[in-house]
Structures are given as structure tokens and as C-alpha cells.
Write a structure and sequence with these properties.
The chain is of the alpha/beta class and 185 residues long. It has one domain (3-183): 3-Layer(aba) Sandwich (Rossmann fold). It has helices spanning 3-8, 24-33, 44-48, 63-85, 99-107, 122-131, 142-152, 167-176, 178-181, and strands spanning 12-18, 38-42, 89-93, 113-118, 158-160, 182-183. Strands 1, 2, 3, 4, 5 and 6 form a six-stranded mixed sheet that branches. The longest helix has 23 residues, at 63-85. The chain starts with a helix and ends with a strand.
Length: 185
């Protein structure tokens, strides 16, 4: 890796988002492993910290579920900012779709900030979901979440159709097109 890439990602935040089973966890981990000083901030950890009273987001949003989602996003944004302030590259991975993506970008104070949206085809997501051990699609359908991604999510950052890519190929595509992922104020 060249020095220019190291400098471009020093003390910054990279957000990797997309629907469930789009490859976020694997790609975020692989991306972090390519960088000299990096951490992988898994947004879902903050949801799983709730011991009782958790309300997951359903297609019919409740005020409490939305409040918990927004809190989870603020927590991961704050953690990412703290890592970046300490000189690390924080690679954040979470499902951040629709209006919540713009809110998340505003919540992250660190600049430069990079946003990568993984957008594989719905049939690829359905196949990945079927083959993995954890179950993400119990409340949502793949089609519903994909529609939210494509119709309601602002077109900011780098959008990648990683349907036919290995995780390494996706990381290479991110690094090759990093300027497109950069969010400017």
C-alpha cells in the first residue's frame, strides 16, 4: 500500500452500509485489515447491549424503535470519532438506510468521512441470507429492504454493486474509487 493511501485514511472514518446480507461485516473487516492503524466498529453491538426493553425496527416503525435506532447510530458515530481523534481509521459497519444515512453523516464529526454503500442485487442477497447461519430477514423481506435502499436512501458516497465480487475484490474497488466515497461539507 502506498504512502498516499495511508495518509488519505489516517485519523478518519469509513462507513460501510447496505442491507442485511450485503457483505458489510466481511467487507468492513477486510478493509480494516488492509489499513495500518484501524478498528472495526460494529454498529449492531450497541443494539445487542440492550438487556431488556429492546424494540427492533419493523417495517411499521414505532417511536421507541426509531429512538433506539437513532441512539445506536449516535453511539457508533461517537465511538468512531473517538478512535479517529486518537489517530486511527474507524471502519464502521451497520445497516444505515433511508433518512438515517444523512443523519449518520451529520452525527460523525470527523472529516474526512467516507461512505460506502454495498448494493448487491436482491436475488444475491436472498441467496446469501439463505446460506448464512444468522437470520437477518425475519421482520423484513429482502425486497422491502432493497426498495428502502434504492428508493429512500440518499445517493451519497460510493455505491457498489458487489453481487459478483469477492470481499477482496470489493475492498479493492473501494480503495480504487476512494475519492467518490468522500463526503464533503
Amino acid at each position: 500500500m502506498g504512502a498516499s493511501l495511508d495518509l488519505a485514511l489516517d485519523s478518519t472514518v469509513v462507513v460501510v452500509t447496505g442491507v442485511m446480507a450485503s457483505g458489510k461485516s466481511t467487507v468492513a473487516q477486510a478493509l480494516a485489515e488492509h489499513l495500518p492503524r484501524s478498528v472495526h466498529v460494529r454498529g449492531d453491538v450497541f443494539r445487542r447491549m440492550i438487556v431488556s426493553g429492546r424494540e427492533d425496527l419493523h417495517p411499521e416503525e414505532t417511536p421507541e424503535a426509531v429512538a433506539q435506532l437513532r441512539l445506536r447510530h449516535r453511539l457508533s458515530a461517537t465511538v468512531a470519532d473517538l478512535w479517529a481523534q486518537a489517530g486511527w481509521t474507524a471502519v464502521v459497519q451497520d445497516v444505515i438506510l433511508g433518512e438515517y444515512l444523512a443523519e449518520y453523516v451529520a452525527a460523525v464529526r470527523t472529516r474526512p468521512l467516507y461512505v460506502v454503500v454495498l448494493a448487491p442485487r436482491p436475488e444475491v442477497v436472498a441467496d446469501r441470507e439463505e446460506r448464512r447461519e444468522k437470520i437477518g430477514y425475519s421482520l423484513w423481506t429482502v425486497e422491502d429492504l432493497d426498495r428502502s435502499l434504492r428508493e429512500d436512501t440518499p445517493r451519497i458516497g460510493l455505491w457498489l454493486d458487489n453481487s459478483d465480487q469477492t470481499p477482496e475484490e470489493t475492498v479493492a474497488a473501494i480503495l480504487a474509487d476512494l475519492p467518490t466515497a468522500r463526503i464533503s461539507d
